[in-house]
Amino acid sequence: RDFCLSRGLGDVYKRQMTFSPAAPFFLQYFAIAIIIFQIPDKNLLVPRWLAYFNLWVGMGLIPASFIPLFHSGPFAWDGVFGFYIPVLVFGAWFIVMVPYLLKLVPSSLPD
Question: Full-prediction pTM beyond 0.85?
Fold first, then answer.
């Protein structure tokens, strides 16, 4: 096999394995929102706005799923929509969710 072909296929594989697995994670945030929406008001453990926030995060991460399709421009791995906005959105999610999740840990432990 030609060395250039092997190297090119290796680069494609490495690129796909580096950036593609991150793309479907936006579904996780939609699932969190659906779970929060299904909890009755009397048993609500987290504020209802947290579900809307997770929907916003999920939508903010959708542009990252286009990374494998672009090699340059705003949707590429180093572009505004492909990298910087998803990083900021995930950072906001982390800052908001960690305190609520840590608050829920003691309530989930057996007595």
Answer: no
